[in-house]
Amino acid sequence: MARVQVDSEQLRVEKVVQLKPVSKTVKGGRKRRFSSLIVVGDGNGHVGVGMGKSASVPDAIRKGSQSAAKHLIEVPMVGSTVPHMVIGRNGSARVMLKPASPGTGVIAGPAARAVLEAVGVTDILTKAMGSDNAINNVYAVLDGLRQMQRATDVAKRRGVPLEQLAIPAKLKDATLYEPRQPLVIEYQDNVDEKYNRQSQRPGGDRRGPRSPQGGRGRGPARQR
Hints:
It contains 5 helices and 8 strands, in the order βββαββββαβααα. The protein has helices at 57-69, 110-119, 134-146, 151-158, 191-199; strands at 13-26, 29-41, 46-54, 72-74, 86-90, 93-99, 106-107, 124-130. Strands 1-2-3-4 form a 4-stranded antiparallel beta sheet, with helices on both faces. The protein has a 4-stranded mixed beta sheet with strand order 5-6-8-7.
């Protein structure tokens, strides 16, 4: 599926799926950085996934968002769900995506939920099979969304009318595949403050400072 260009102001949904400290051992010691996995979307059938790495949390998130915005894809949708069932794969991770009736909600884990909410899907059934790695699961969901097809495109490719396709009757309505209004999902995350405090700690010793008496964080010795 080819990449699409979407105005950055329309990408109102941004999810921090994973943000963790990583370190690299070099000759002079360890280089401590932060790695982020970011999902962005407009809630109207466009989503992108990117990763960023930097010495500070805000820069890692910013790099991940910029990378995700450069790798947007368009996802066909039928109302509030997906057109058909698929199984996305990435590495040892497999994620099943199955359409659901209105009112079902997003039945998914944290990684898959972030991608589906960024797309704008509100009713879907998912099942993660295989690896529980967040990065693999996110890209497995993205692979499944790439496999989605509109019934109108399939009929045109086969050269047959839409009514002759072996699909449910409710999916033979061409108006279902028209663009819809974007869904805005409010999302707040306080991970910046958490990891900013963690990044200010010394890189060599993550435990508390030693007291002059030799104990770790203890008060003055008692007088006998």
